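Task card 7
Instruction: Convert sequence to structure tokens.
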Amino acid sequence: MRNPFRRTAALLCTAAALTVTLGPAARAAPQAECGTRVHGSHARADCFNGNSTPDRVQLHVECARWWDPDMDTAPAAVDPARHVSLTQRCWLEIRRAWVTHQPG
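Output:
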């Protein structure tokens, strides 16, 4: 019968070695938490940054009609422990809305 602790220890050592090898560049930067709401032709994103580094957020809106241009807000900086609201709209319906992040 095999010892399950030996296999667990081997997996933990491998994970630790990969973390050291890849370094901080491979880790994802912390991002602000954003909630997006769509109501008719209006979209709103509320973002709160609970991290120690600033984050830049941008709201993107894809309109449902082919003749209605897709809209993006200007990037907004969200400093640590701060909140920002972004709004955008289409003429008629919104197909989808999402937020992108960039390190601040």
